[in-house]
Amino acid sequence: MKIRFVLPALAAAAALALTGCVNNAESEGTGGASTDTSGIQADAAAVALLPDDIKDRGTLRIGTDAEYPPNEFKDANGNPTGWGVDLANAVSAKLGLTPEWEILGFDSIIPRIQEGTIDMGSSSFTDTLERQKSVDFVNFLNAGSLWAAAKGATIDPDDACGLTVAVQATTVQDTDELPAKNQACLDAGKPGIEVLRFDGQPEVTQAVVDGRADAFSADLPVTGDAVAKLGDKLETVGDVFDAAPYGFATQKDSKTTKAVQAALQSLIDDGTYLKIMKGAGIESGALTTATINAGEN
């Protein structure tokens, strides 16, 4: 997460602004047309790696927060959608399984994986060393954080002392980025950062739009989506920073981890993965190899 990730990520944000065209009334999400995964054939090598209980059940139980457009959000019928959902559905198809989605609070997904009541988490998880203590991550995107503020505001994320910043609770921006920035302010004898925490990204965005917060910090695709939708009210500020991989969360040291990795690699090899990344406008963060626990911070 110490690697700077600026020019490629900003290009992805620009592409996202151009491609985000679907508007869901209930979810307030965008993120391009959904990718059809119905024609994907199971990969025999990936299927062979599955635990017997999952193989016999025939379903992949997936937990998601569905409050983080355009990655994962609810469609007009309340069902999970978004490019992250498309990719997880494609992984399920490669495993010869039917995806069985459950909408959960973000901070309850990892405990549910540990308990074994769901098989995989697909909820824009940043792969961190701390989270790796609890679960494994099958990495599928290089992402980073990006701030947004009211259009015309003079906000500098590197000089945020005294500001009110909105975040989605328990995201890496909430648990890592802003506590570190706040402590740096206090250590320098400056006013601290007031953090407004919300359960969903739409509420985070709204807090900036209505003036309760000076800015928000979120993952690159999420910030890009919000600015693409509300460009008359919001703009990105500063550069993308703290590059880190996204990953599907799976039970620690499990056969499921290896099976999901093999399924994702098969999607990379046959071009389906890149099709989904291009549809979301985030192909500059695409991977060529499905890795496990690549997060280094």
Task: Summarize the model shown.
The protein has 297 residues and is an alpha/beta fold. The chain is 37% helix and 23% strand.
Molecular structure report:
By secondary structure, the protein is an alpha/beta fold. The protein folds into 2 domains: 178 residues, Periplasmic binding protein-like II (D-Maltodextrin-Binding Protein, domain 2), CATH 3.40.190; 98 residues, D-Maltodextrin-Binding Protein, domain 2 (3-Layer(aba) Sandwich). The chain is 37% helix and 23% strand.
When the domains are counted, the total is 2
| Rg (C-alpha, Å) | 18 Å
Order of helices and strands: HHHEEEHEHEHEEHEHEHEHHE
- The helical percent reads 25-40%
Helix-strand layout with pairing:
Blueprint: H1 7-19, H2 44-48, H3 52-57, E1 59-64, E2 73-74, E3 80-81, H4 83-94, E4 98-103, H5 106-115, E5 120-121, H6 129-132, E6 135-150, E7 164-168, H7 172-187, E8 194-198, H8 201-209, E9 215-219, H9 220-229, E10 234-251, H10 255-270, H11 272-280, E11 291-292
Parallel strand pairs: 1-4, 1-5, 7-8, 7-9
Antiparallel strand pairs: 2-3, 5-10, 6-9, 6-10, 6-11
Helix pairs in contact: 1-9, 4-10, 4-11
